Amino acid sequence: MPEAPRQDSRTGSTTAPTEEELRTLDAHWRAANYLAAGQIYLLANPLLTEPLRPEHIKPRLLGHWGTSPGLNLVHTHLNRVIKARGLDALCIWGPGHGGPSVLANSWLEGSYSEKYPDASRDARGMELLMRQFSFPGGVPSHVAPEVPGSIHEGGELGYSLAHAYGAALDNPDLLVACVIGDGEAETGPLAGSWHANKFLDPVHDGAVLPILHLNGYKIANPTVLARLPQEELDALLRGYGHEPIHVAGDEPATVHRAMAAAMDTALDRIAAAQRAAREDGATERPRWPVIVLRTPKGWTGPAEVDGEPVEGTWRAHQVPLSGVRDNPEHLRQLEAWLRSYRPEELFDAEGRPAADVLACVPEGTRRLGATPYANGGLLVRDLPIPSLDDFAVPVDKPGSTTHEPTRVLGDLLARVMRDTADRRDFRLVGPDETASNRLQAVYDASGKTWQAGTLPVDEHLDRHGRVMEVLSEHLCQGWLEGYLLTGRHGLFSCYEAFVHIVDSMVNQHIKWLRTSRRLPWRAPIASLNYLLTSHVWRQDHNGFSHQDPGFVDHVLNKSPEVVRVYLPPDANTLLSVADHALRSRDYVNVIVAGKQPCFDWLSIEEARVHCARGAGIWEWAGTEDGTEPDVVLACAGDVPTQETLAAAHLLRRYLPELSVRVVNVVDLARLLPQGEHPHGMSDFEYDGLFTTTKPVIFAYHGYPWLIHRLAYRRTGHQNLHVRGYKEAGTTTTPFDMVVRNDLDRYRLVMDVIDRVPGLAVRATAVRQRMADARTRHHAWIREHGTDLPEVAEWSWNA
């Protein structure tokens, strides 16, 4: 049992509930349980004003009862402490399919009816609430975007605790409770998330209260943590830096008392830790509380069905009584179960919640379903992004100078970090790669947040920093999602090959945004921005394991109204794209850019215009004479752009009579038809850019078949030939990477000769010269370990 409750740190009044308060807490909990069960089963007769009949039951019984009573208990007791202490709070509901409970509680408190007036707080609205659950045209079984107060879907498990910490960052007055299901606790991302407390600043951040709900079972198996001896579980949680507070039982009155005491104890400890850091200057990392809640799976539901135990077993996970429409005994059991909550005491004759039920509910925006922190677009402010002219690199002639694009971007991000120092609403996250990715200028504005021990050799660690590095892509993603969903801004910098680790997480976020866009009450949030660097073409030193450009393919499969992919070819175009992405709302922006020295092709003004077009002709790079070109050299990505321009250079030299058009693509979605993506080109635009009859040699950053997929319905698709990465990777030289994948300048010239009618005969000697250059390359790198001088020293103006 937890220790006796202390004085409330804010009000000075005792927080232990009276017997009368315990009675009303139980009434609220029973009402929520009744509504949760009703959503799974009932199509009509929501108040049981007549005997239950088969036609009152849904034809398909969908939903998950097992976790619902525990979630309802947590919601009820959070209501109590929020109201008693005047807290601003948010709850992350981690257990999968917890929708019935959160829907029930938001309906009871009135926030659901405010968003959906048809679901009024009366019998008619109750019937709609129940009918719509997991029903065509209704709402999902998860805590989805449609549910007020939610920022976490709870469908795919593992991300709740990371989201909770992301929400708490830079929200010093916010309590973020996080219910973690014991099945969810077995996932890798959740296991990694326990380390997030080493990054939580008790001065500038809010508090996270994990509530580990051990009901013992997953779908069909016991859960690991529920079967650990308490001593071993406590050792695990203490090893993670938490102090466990236990609540266990199956007798409601006893559990209510224990849960109230546990909440008070936890919040007193949190208040003491924050006061010590904020007022007394304490720098020692707090040992934050965690509540371990053990209640039976399917608590208060049927104890036994068809002679098999249900309550407290895996059989309670979904629908305890599955044959209600056809089996009279199941129908009888369901009615007895629903009536056991005594709905006539909980709702009046019109179906309105009784005063006892609402006694613990906070008011206004303190209700969990009405908190603005769960609708972050209401809180978000525009970033103070400075003029790009302050950071742009001068370009007098294309290709005459080089810069490291991400280093240039780092200067811009440092300014943004500095200009948000007081607001604290911008964070840079990444897995131990900020300096590796050339963004270290941000350290001049903010260090790396760190609450664990430090040594004299450490650099840039800062208890109050806003650069976040942890070697867990899952945790970086979860932090940033929670941060954005509660109304702030950020950027995720990652090695291109390893961003795949969060493929599934970004799926969920994209689905969230797509659904949110269709809800008029959800305000747009800042976009999730990825900077993918250390990319495939410059991982020659790390080798095959670090070479994978496929995240772009993955993202472009998703909802077109949400996803955007940009491949800026130089430093100034990267600045322009980043400026656009950081200002945008409700998108997932993927920016792929190199960190190695790269030629500067466009001035900042030219970059702005080119990025606004998304794809365009570089007239200075081609040899068009006012008529239709003989061939189009297209490119997307920094290294493919360099190889394309080098190929154009060779064609000028060896085939000066050839009319060559050079097209650069920054925004990949521009290749899609206009009806397939908001950025897609009309057929008229596409045909004008790429022609309908001439060969197009397209040098692409990633897997070549993506370009074919994007353009397969275009008139000239049969003329499109794409070169890109084809899994021919190894540890080698930079230029050998493009040669191995047939993306090099010499191969591109050969492709032109092979595909422009008449050149195969006329330019045989030129083609042979290109093939010989590739042969010389292979011999040179094996002897010298470096690229050919003619490649390493090449420039457009040479």
From TrEMBL:
Family the entry assigns: Belongs to the XFP family.
Enzyme class name: lyase
Xylulose 5-phosphate/Fructose 6-phosphate phosphoketolase C-terminal domain span: 595-796
Cofactor: thiamine diphosphate
Family matches, as InterPro entries: Phosphoketolase (IPR023962), THDP-binding (IPR029061), Transketo_C/PFOR_II (IPR009014), Xul5P/Fru6P_PKetolase (IPR005593), Xul5P/Fru6P_PKetolase_C (IPR018969), Xul5P/Fru6P_PKetolase_CS (IPR019790), Xul5P/Fru6P_PKetolase_N (IPR018970), Xul5P/Fru6P_PKetolase_ThDP_BS (IPR019789)
PANTHER family registered for this protein in UniProt: PHOSPHOKETOLASE-RELATED (PTHR31273)
Keyword Lyase found: yes
UniProt name for this protein: Probable phosphoketolase
Annotated stretches, region: Disordered: 1-21
Signal peptide location: none
UniProt superkingdom: Bacteria
Span of domain Xylulose 5-phosphate/Fructose 6-phosphate phosphoketolase N-terminal: 18-378
EC number: 4.1.2.-
Gene3D superfamilies according to UniProt: 3.40.50.920, 3.40.50.970
Matching Pfam families: XFP, XFP_C, XFP_N
Keyword set, alphabetical order: Lyase, Thiamine pyrophosphate
Transmembrane segments annotated in the record for this chain: none
